[in-house]
Amino acid sequence: QLQLVESGGGLVQPGGSLRLSCTASGFRLSTYAIGWFRQAPGKEREGVSCISRGGRSTNYADSVKGRFTISGDDAKNTVYLQMNTLKPEDTAVYYCAAAPPLFSGCVLPATTYNYWGQGTQVTVSS
User: Are the CB atoms for 55 and 72 separated by under 8 Å?
Assistant: First the structure.
């Protein structure tokens, strides 16, 4: 059974950093395109970043470019989202998700992804 588990969320002050982890069981993450998404209260879920199978390409939402970095660790079967210079508007529940097998490249629309984790809360506040 494919399962994704996010961790690393928490409360951080503006300007601070967090690293989110997305760990898989039941499959090798590196063989799937993986995306990070977030949903704030009263807002739609939005794509934040993604990484293609094998890590050959990445993509970022304009709102996080230059601040967030996505990466993968095959040995740990984990994809990370390093978040720097956090802002209050980054506050949301963050989810990771896997695209269907053999999906080429990576894209940010959430409808592309069909395996989802349970989410981890990130709160940026002083």
Answer: yes
